[in-house]
Amino acid sequence: MEAGRVARILWVSREARPGAFPAGAYRVDTEARPRAALDRIEVARAEDDPYAVCFAAWGHGWGRDEVDDLFRTAPDLFLVLEGPADTLPGHDDLGAWARPDHCLTLPLPATGALRRSLAEHLSARWLQEEADRRRVALLEAEARKDRAQRRSHERRLQILYGIVEKLHGSESLEQALHVALGEMSRFLGATTGSLLLLDGPDRLRVVEAVGPRRERIRGLEFPLEDSRVARHALAERRPILVSDIQENGRFAEAEEVVRYRPRSILSVPLFGQDEPLGVLNFGGDDPAGRFGPHDERLVVTLGRQVAVALEKAGLLEGLRRTVNESIRALAGAIEAKDPYTRGHSDRVTHYSRLIAQALGLPPAEVDVVVRAAVLHDVGKIGVPSAVLNKPARLDDHEFRLIQRHPEVGTEIVREIRAMGETLAIIRHHHERIDGRGYPDGLRGDSLPLGARILAVADTFDAMTSDRPYRQGLPNEVAYEEIERCAGTQFDPEVARVFLDNAPRWPDLEPEAPEARAASG
User: What whole-number distance in Å separates Cα of residue 119 and Cα of residue 101?
Assistant: First the structure.
């Protein structure tokens, strides 16, 4: 509701007298004819200046048909029917469209003070309801937008995992790279895709390509200096994105060695152990399909996968690392909506790994817990940004939106076959040992061990991290709270292992440099 909005009242009488209602928190219009009054109500709603209350004389042109028409046109309007007490209808006589909570009868004679008081009360109530309706509409619009973004993130994640699955099924690195380039080219709408690797410090070799020029350029070697785009991408250690080379002064005159000048260019440098490996290139000719920032982020993720695969002797080991990077790409998309929890997934993953290892879990089970921890908050993609970033405590409705994120996250991850073992952990990481958690109220041993581990790690980071409405607690205070809640909120054994080992885990900070950088 915009500031300063005032409710309108329509008074219908055969003797329309301006001023019949004293001035108050409303504007009063008069109309002599019932049908003309209904037309005015409809026009006012179309102009987004609706009437809040209508006073009408029952039996003087107003009957069941008029009441039905009024509520069909304006179901949220308050109707006050005036007349002698013995003539006023009951609610059952007003028709199916009449709302009992919005239709009142006022026996006559009624004093001006009574009318004024009733008008002011109904006007104030209508204004509040109108404000609530508009607020709900805004929240629903934002939720629709967030759902669209979630579907976009899901699609990109599915593309990445589709590539990973095909790479996993390939018997040779050459075949794997060809599959990766082909899948990404189709998704981007690119005309060509190529992988150029450094052969020494100043030469490039086209080791794989897709597109109509594949056979001509595959295996081609040339000086790095001859490829201006690749040279700049490697020298600047960042992607080069040219949406339209015809409008780009920097590369418009560049003459690439392959004699192909795509209209849109995306070149991503590849590095391994901080050493340059080569570049991943995509080119497009369709002006309507120019590459954009979202494409750049997706290809950067693919570039990391390719770099890992190239650096490892075995493709399988490279795939394991690229899976983790792909998962972190989605975790980063979540945290981008909520700057106050940036790095949260990295820290919770680190704590979960330490707890799982301290419990003596086999490496394969530790890996499942770790992968679940990375994506445990993926469902927050479906939570409106206004709720995630609210600089105060959440109200009940907002908290219910937050409580849905384990279920939403489970449905997102369910589409990824390789993540099947993590689903129960993601869904139940907010359950409690005493059964008072959500979403399913599981208790005791019915909770997966991974979810019990994640509950301790997640809560510890939540307590010790700064939030919009409070500062993070010292570690010692968080330890005391976990010990106090062992046996009710937390699994006693998991809590004990955490508390016994936590002082020996220096600062409880993630070990990986990239994780420390992400948590900023």
Answer: 15
